[in-house]
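Long-time lurker. I teach an intro course on protein structure, and each term I like to show students one example going from raw sequence to a predicted 3D structure in C-alpha cell notation. This year I'd like something fresh instead of my usual example. Would anyone be willing to generate the C-alpha cells for the chain below so I can use it in lecture? Attribution to the forum is fine with me.
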Amino acid sequence: MAPEQRELIWAEVMRRRENFTGSDSRFAVTLGISASQYSRLRNGERDRVIGDDQWIRIGRKLDVSFGKDRWKAAKTPAYMYIEAQLERCQQNSISRMLVDRTGIGKTFTAQCYAKTHKNAIYVDCSQVKTKTLLIRFIAEEFGLSNKGTYHEVYADLVYYLQVMDKPLIILDEAGDLQRAAFNELKALYNKTKGCCGFYMMGADGLKKKIENGRKREDVGYAENFDRFGSRYQKASPNDAKEFEIFFANCAAAICKVNAPAMSFQTLLPKLNFSLRRIEEEIRK
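-- Reply from a regular --
Happy to contribute to a lecture. Here you go:
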C-alpha cells in the first residue's frame, strides 16, 4: 500500500477519533488493532507497525475512498427526514422504526450520521444475523472487547450503554436478523431503556417479518413492534405521483452537489427510481 493511501486512511481515523468519546485503547478496539499500535501510529510511526492487510481492513471499515472526486452527501428530502429521526432518537434515548422503499438513501443517510455523530454506530444486520454476531459487533463498535464469553460481552455492553452519553444504535437491514437476534434486541432495549436510542430500518421484508411474527404470536415480535414506536414510519409518500416528485427532488439535490453542470432530468429515466444508480450514471 502506498504511503499516501495510508495517510488518507489515517486522516479518516483521526476524524473518527473526534467523534469517539471513549479512551484511546477503546478506540483502538474499534479499529481492530492494539492500544500500543494505535499509540505508535498516532505518534507518526508508519513502518512495520501494522501490515497492509490491517490498513486495508481499517480503510474498508471506515469506507475510505481513494478517488480524486469524493462523493458528497446531499440534503435530499429522504436524508433530512431520516437525519431528523436519528437525532430525535439519540437526544431523547428513544426507539423508532423506518420501513420504506429501497433505493431512497436510507443506508447512505444512516452511515453518514454514524460517521459524524458522537456515540452513534451503524449496524448492517445482514452481516451479523445471529444473536452472538450482533451483540459482539455492537460491543466492538463501542470499543469494548468482544473476546470473552457471550454473557460477559453482553453484560459489559449493557453496563457501558447505561453510562455513556446518549448512545444510538442504528440497525439497518433488520429484516435479515434471525429470530433469536431479534428477541435479543428486546432484552437489550429493556436493559437500556432511557439510556440508549435505537433506530431500526428496512424495507418490505422487515414489515413482513414483524407482521407474520405478530400473527403467529411468536415471542418478541409484538414486543419489539411496541418498543420501536408501534408503527412503520416512512420518509417517502405513498401516492405514486407524489413519489415521482419526491424522487426527482432527491436526484436533483444529489446532482447539485456532485455534478452541478449536469441536468438531473437526463438521469431520471436511467435510475429506475433507485438512488443507488445515480453515482454510476454521473461518473460515466
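Some talking points for your students: The first strand starts at residue 95 and ends at 99. The mean pLDDT is 93.
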